[in-house]
Structure formats: C-alpha cells, structure tokens
C-alpha cells in the first residue's frame, strides 16, 4: 500500500516570508512518481511538478523549489518570498509504477499568505 | 491548452435521486478519473477509465457507477443519492498508458449537496 502524509494542516505566513510545505511518502515500489498540485479558492487543481524516483536532483522554478530526499522519503516544497496569490491548498501525491490506481494524495496543506 | 469541463459547479439533489455528473476533456486523453474531495481526507479515487468502455474501481466505488461511451466523456452516476455523498467531485484526465504516470489535468469541480 502507498501513503502520503502532509502533517501541516494549515500554515500562515506574512507576505515575502519563505515557507516550506512538508510531504512524506511510503511505498514498496522502487519506481514511483511524486507530484505537487495547487488548489486555489476557485477549486481547480493545478499541476506544479512531477519527479520520478531515480531523479533526486532538486528543482527550482522561479520562486518555487522542491527538495527530494529518498533517504527520508520526503518531497518538500518551498516557496520563496511568498505572495498573497500563493494562498491555496497544496497537495502532494504519489503514483507507483505497479499501481493501477494512479495517484494517492496527501490530505493537503492550506497555505494563507497575509499582506 | 488543456481543458477538462465539468457540467455543473454546484448541484443540489434529494436523497434517493439518481444523479449524473458529466465530465468532458478536449485533449484526446486515454485516461479519465473521478475523485471526491472531503476536508481532511484529500482526494480519494472513485473510479477511473483507461479506454472507452473500460473502467476500474478506485478506493471508494461503493454507491457509484461510471460510464465511458466516448473517449472524451466520462460520467459519474450516483444510483440512489445519500446524504453521505455530499462532497466536492473532481474529474481529471491524463494521456498515455495507465502506468505511464503522466500528470493529471483537473476540472473545476462540482460541489454536490444531497438533502
């Protein structure tokens, strides 16, 4: 069975602060994929990143960065210099090669960025 | 640009009614999914389909059925709606093999209330 844990239910920061959203996963498969999605108040989930289990390089995209560490089964997401528009629910998700059930989502982290 | 369209943003039905939720994608994707989203539980997979007329149960299929008669359309059916099916329902699609783990693209969601 696979599992994704996002222990932070809600986080509040003030604009321009950096914030890290934690994601810990469990799977028995050696080949798997990790994802982050953003869900703004409008409701639509927006795909942010996909990372496979063989690529542990950190990734940076503008103010967003992701830290993948297989040793701790974590795939954390950092927003640098946060903005009010970053306020959303963020989901981490896992999909294993051998699983026909596609994505297993964490419970999500509600991020509020205050002006 | 990727587009997944759900027929209704908000829907109110009565207990015992048969309810249809429709989803259409315009990207010629092979795979389509139905999730429900509840506070604190993240997204849970109800059913998915990897080809026309093909379907597989997800984690919580009880009380639901699906239909995929055309590649672009995937319908979720509540055979006899109950109050515990009040939820946000999200449709998604992705391309490629069911094991290819491509990112899923989501619709805006349907907030369904069963009275």
Structural category of chain B is: mainly beta
Query: What share of residues are in beta strands of chain A?
Result: over 45%
How much strand content do the residues of chain B show? over 45%
Q: Outline of chain B, from the CA principal axes? A: globular
Biggest sheet details of chain B = 7 strands, mixed
Q: Helix- and strand-based class of chain A? A: mainly beta
What does this structure look like?
The complex is a heterodimer of chains A (115) and B (115). Chain A has 115 residues and is mostly beta strands. In chain A, 0% of the residues lie in helices and 53% in strands. Chain A has no helices and twelve strands. In chain A, the strands form three sheets. In chain A, strands 2, 5, 6, 10, 11 and 12 form a six-stranded mixed beta sheet that branches. Chain A has a four-stranded antiparallel beta sheet with strand order 3-9-8-7, with no helix packed on it. A two-stranded antiparallel sheet of chain A has the order 1-4. In chain A, a hairpin with a 4-residue loop joins strand 8 (64-69) and strand 9 (74-79). Chain B has 115 residues and is an all-beta fold. Chain B has no helices and eleven strands. Chain B has strands at residues 4-6, 10-13, 19-25, 31-38, 42-51, 54-57, 64-70, 73-78, 87-94, 105-106, 110-114. Chain B is globular and about 40 Å long. Chain B starts with a strand and ends with a strand. Chain A binds chain B through residues 4, 9, 33, 35, 37, 42-47, 50, 52, 91, 95, 97-98, 100-103, 105-108, and chain B through 9, 31, 33, 40-45, 48, 56, 58-59, 88, 90, 92, 94, 98-99, 101-109.
Short key terms for the protein model shown above:
heterodimer; A: about 120 residues; mainly beta; 6-stranded mixed beta sheet; 4-stranded antiparallel beta sheet; 12 strands; globular; B: about 120 residues; about 0% helix
């Amino acid at each position: 069975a696979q599992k994704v844990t996002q222990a932070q239910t809600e986080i509040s920061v003030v604009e321009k602060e950096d914030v890290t959203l934690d994601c810990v996963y469990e799977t028995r498969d050696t080949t798997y994929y990790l994802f982050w999605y953003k869900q703004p108040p409008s409701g639509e989930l927006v795909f942010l990143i996909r990372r496979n289990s063989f690529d542990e390089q950190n990734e940076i995209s503008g103010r967003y960065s992701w830290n993948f560490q297989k040793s701790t089964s974590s795939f954390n997401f950092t927003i640098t210099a946060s903005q009010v528009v970053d306020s959303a629910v963020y989901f981490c998700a896992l999909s294993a090669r051998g699983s026909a059930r596609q994505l297993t989502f964490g419970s999500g982290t509600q991020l509020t960025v205050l002006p | 640009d990727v587009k997944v369209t759900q027929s209704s943003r908000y829907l109110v039905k009565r207990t015992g009614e048969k309810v249809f939720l429709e989803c259409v994608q315009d990207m010629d994707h092979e795979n389509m999914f139905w999730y429900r989203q509840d506070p604190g539980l993240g997204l849970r997979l109800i059913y998915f389909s990897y080809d026309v007329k093909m379907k597989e149960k997800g984690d919580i299929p009880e009380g639901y059925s699906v239909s995929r008669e055309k590649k672009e359309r995937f319908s979720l059916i509540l055979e006899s709606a109950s109050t515990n099916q009040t939820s946000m329902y999200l449709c998604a699609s992705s391309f490629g093999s069911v094991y290819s783990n491509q990112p899923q693209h989501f619709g805006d969601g349907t907030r369904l209330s069963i009275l």
